[in-house]
Amino acid sequence: MRGISYWFYLVAALSVTFGMIWGIVMAISQDHTLSPAHAHLNLVGWVTMGLFGIYYHLVPESGATRLAKIHFVVATAGLVLLAPGIAIALLYDFEGLAAIGSLVTLASMLIFLWTVIRDGRGRKLAF
Ligand code: HEM
């Protein structure tokens, strides 16, 4: 079975691949309306998910926990709701999906914050 880092990296690489294509389409069309959605897909999807993946790779005992799997599901759900949610907010003036996505994304970061604190308490870190 693959480690949780693989799944974080996979979502990160998919996000930036789609995000770059989206950026190129915006540049060619010279329509930058959706640039905040593109930015969040890249920064939450590529950068943040990638950093989570690196952390779980560096601290494998943390990546092997059930909480790490829950974290992956919550983080991915937040991303999937947030980036399209921002696009929908910009295009149709409906912010509900972006609001839910932002709260789920915050929940993901709270799980990660707890993970970092838990791993740092009285334990010898791998980095
Ligand atoms: C092929 C790669 C990419 C292309 C062609 C591209 C293209 C663009 C374009 C055309 C804009 C709109 C600029 C404007 O309205 O002034 C933009 C905005 C932005 N992009 Fe990208 N981008 C790419 C990759 C990335 C990546 C990898 C990241 C982050 C890790 C990123 C983050 C941002 C941010 C933060 C903004 C500003 C959003 C805003 O001010 O609303 N982009 N990009």
Automatic annotation (TrEMBL):
Keyword annotations from UniProtKB, A to Z: Membrane, Transmembrane, Transmembrane helix
Transmembrane segments: 7-28, 40-58, 70-92, 98-117
Top-level lineage group: Bacteria
SUPFAM superfamilies named among the record's database cross-references: Cytochrome c oxidase subunit I-like
Protein name, entry field: Cbb3-type cytochrome c oxidase subunit I
